[in-house]
Amino acid sequence: MTSPDPRTPGQGDEEETGLGPTRLRDLLLIAVVTGIAAWILVRYNYSDFPPLPLLAGVVLYVLAALEIVIAFVVRSRVESHQIGQARGQLHPLTAARVLALAKASAILGAISVGVWAGLLTFLLGQQDVAAADHDRPAAIVGLIGGVLLVGAAMWLEYCCRAPDDPPPVEGA
């Protein structure tokens, strides 16, 4: 005999289900866990790494810039209520894809922040090591790129929000 589902609709289940906004604390947790793992891996394997090029994290800047451009396009379409299937409107499926891109990019950015922060933490502890002196600027560039990507992704996700319902018409 099976027991009934304790979470049947309408029985006071206040918990939200579905996809909600990305929480900054979740991204911070991802960055911290990734940073600790990266620091441990770098600590024991740094001598096997090739030199880091200065622009190793430049792809994060490119992704952040693209997402900012997309955010402004989405924002203008949402604010002017140009959402629909007609030509020139933002298709709802495209909006959902853009939202998925924003969420994935926020996670990628958090992982990048963790990796670059873990590497930079290790490098800052290596005084008088020529390889570490060479790699520090690349780690800083990558860390800043990760932070910018998280910011751009969060902005893009914010721009994908549905507009508020219009206020009720008085006298109707």
Written account of the structure:
The protein is mostly helical and 172 residues long. It is built from four helices and no strands. α2 runs antiparallel to α3. The radius of gyration is 22 Å and the shape is elongated.
Main attributes of the structure:
172 residues; mainly alpha; 4 helices; 0% strand; elongated; transmembrane; transmembrane helix; DUF3180; membrane; DUF3180 domain-containing protein
Summarize the structure.
It is built from four helices and no strands.
- Tell me the major beta sheet: none
User: Shape from CA axes?
Assistant: elongated
Provide the helix percentage: 55-70%
Low-confidence stretches: none
Please report the number of helical segments: 4
Mean pLDDT across all amino acids: 86
Radius of gyration using CA atoms only:
22 Å
What is the chain-wise order of helices and strands? HHHH
- Class of secondary structure makeup: mainly alpha
Strand content: under 5%
User: How many β-strand runs?
Assistant: 0
What is the terminal separation in angstroms?
Answer: 54 Å
Protein name: DUF3180 domain-containing protein
Keywords: Membrane, Transmembrane, Transmembrane helix
Transmembrane segments: 27-46, 52-74, 95-117, 137-156
InterPro entries: DUF3180
